[in-house]
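User: Fold this, then the next.

Assistant: Folding the first:
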Amino acid sequence: MKKEKIARRTLLQAAAMSALGALIPGASAQQAPPEVWADPTKTPGVPVGKLGSRSPFERLEKKASDISARSPLQDFYGIITPSDLHFERSHNGVPNIDPDKYELLIHGMVERPTVFTLRDLKRFPALSRIAFIECSGNFRTGKETMTPQEICGLTSQSEWTGVMLSTLFREVGVSPKATWFLAEGSDAAVMTRSIPVSKGWQDAMIAYAQNGEAIRPQQGYPARLFLPGWEGNTNVKWIRRIELSDQPFMTREETSKYTETIRGGKIRQFSFDMDARSIITYPSYPQQVMRGWIEIRGIAWSGRGKISRVELSTDAGRHWHTATLQEPVLDKAHTYFRYLWRWDGQHTEIMSRAVDDTGYIQPTLQQLTAARGTDMGGYHLNPVTAWIIQRDGTVLFKPEKFR
């Protein structure tokens, strides 16, 4: 009789927590502390269900603002970002699109203008690849109490599945004279970007799946343009139209937005590739370490190819050591790195820098400023990031000014 009461209570509590999470947007385990069973072998557990869930003790969350939400990089153990923790960036909210009514129009300088339904897209040969997406505005600084999530949490990685854009280009008969195409989204901002046709032939994809399931609405459901290695805003979500042309379309997002000032009063436009970058995710703020052996861990990535090596400094940049790269090391993908270090308890700074297979070396903020000037804006900043380790083991971010 006692066992039945315990089981009933357990089921009611589980149902209540589930209902609360469904009714309250953004509800999390932080708002409902989990019940701790003194001896789980004496209490029947929650029964199986239709959907899995994280342990209520694991409190991973994105850090949201009005226009974006950052991935908790410091909480990840590998290179795949859980779909619900993939960073978000939208220009006018997330649209609700019926997949049965979805259409993608490809027209312009083509032989056969065509409208593709989602079912049509899924009939073509599919391809899957693991690669990152990163917002070009993915850098913040200013105070010591910043986490990797706050500094550069606008990057995430998934396994993307879809139809290669080159397949669709052949299907519609793209003109050899076409050099650009317009990608247009179905959101309220009608996000549009001009993309070189060469990228479409190379490795662009119309992705409809992410990490083994239909792509999430925040990531472009039911289909998005995926351009491996290129700045996030070119990877137009909820894509509805592709128009082929022999010149760029000069849209708002590539004239007044997503351009960078450089020295000499010039503007850098169409800077698509995301440069090599790395960040140490452990130890980092607000973690605290103890004297002795520490495995320094982090991620590195490059939009131009593979990471060839990651170098670590544990003495504020005076000496550099080569970290171990965790397999697989993939093209245009987050790569996990590790370095075993014995901390002697003295005040120091630790930092990492990535090198990709083109020979590009991740720069310091001072090097970026020297090349572009202090008015370089907030796009395509990929500086070496340093963490201060104090004598008591407290870890703090080292902010730097460039304006």
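Now the next one, as you asked:
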Amino acid sequence: MSGSTERTGSHEVTPPTAKLTLTTLTAMVVGSMVGAGVFSLPSRFAQETGVAGALIAWAIAGTGMLMLAFVFQSLAVRRPDLDAGVYAYAKAGFGEYLGFFSAFGYWASACVGNVTYWVLIMSTVGAIWPALGDGDTLLAAVLSTLGLWGFFLLIRRGVKEATTINRVVTVAKVVPILVFVLIALFYFDAGVFADNFAGADYAGSLFNQVRGTMLATVFVFLGVEGASVYSRHAKRRADVGRATVLGFLSVFAVFASVTVVSYGIMPMGEIAELRQPSMAGVLEHAVGTWGKVFVSVGLIVSVLGAYLAWTLMAAEVLFVAAKDEDMPRFLGRSSGDDVPVPALMMTTLLSQLVLVVTLFSDDAFNFALDLTSALSLIPFLLAAAFALKLGLRPDERTAGGAITGREITVAAVATVYTAFLLFAAGLKFVLVSFIVYAPATLLFAKARREQGRRLFSPRELLICAVSVAGAVLGVVALALGWISL
């Protein structure tokens, strides 16, 4: 350990020996975003919209997420005292309880997202091994469980080793996606593309088409905040913001291209019916069986890399929240290799629980994907709103002078965008999110008891009551069949 110190909230913490460079931080962002989602995009979009709706959706999502990337870039420079990004910003802006909810929601989102990776891997192999089905059979769950705990043991060996592996895997997994886009362009049929332009009758109005794609775009862009979450390991603080924007710009064009070129290969009705990973089915239609095999291998490499990055980030959020006394103390312990083992264990356990729940879902992959997106929206909204608050109410801890008009505009757009996403998610996923959020208050209460503090302020008690009421309504809705998994 180094002899110098840095601040994490109100506590001084000796910085870890492993310091990450701009290249490694950027690889963390790219590695987090390029995962299961990109391989599911053709079918997910074709189920909701045609080419016109897809172009509008990507324009909205690209602009909104770029604004969020700029928000994280700005906050990394303006408030260098705050670590763990999403969680720390929510706490600084809106108090300890909402900061706790942000930390827990972001962590839970990562855990649910990790389950989508294993479901998609098993679905991919299930094309040749029917016993795995669509990744939702008992055998698939057992094999996924072995994968979960295998990665737990790998990451326990050390953060530096794990991030180095992620850097190599990031390069390996981007290549097959780029090859897919190039091959699809070569086989591109303008007539098929034109027929798919307006969308099919089942897609509904253009507004509903665009709205229907929003959670899918959120899922594939999750990870744009990756460098911010891992900021305490950065060699230079300014690299956190640079890595965020570089990572986002590196993958945005790829995601949009994967979606759009697919409309030039097959009718959208046929794309919508493809099993996941639908990118494999599109390439198989173009070039034959080898295309399906090529994408499937690329997917497995990609998803394992994304799983590694997300597990690291999820454990990091719990660890820093515990260090800042917003989570129970046991989650703030780490090994001599700077690995937050209790936080890593809890992350793996929640992923295991969600994996079991998927056995009872009608569509395990899409349910887990949409829930991942929905859980992340409140942390994103609070981070964007904090940036807006900094611009409207000057804070003496803000570095670099007064907040500029450009930064205020960016924060306002990011706030409106994330609020729209909550609307697009729909009541079902808002209620299910409450079911996840409400029980987490037990961890907050445990942390307060450890400190000998009052459990809730009047304002916090009101927030708690709202979350519990939402959870009760969600449980009732599930029990009566108003919503389903």
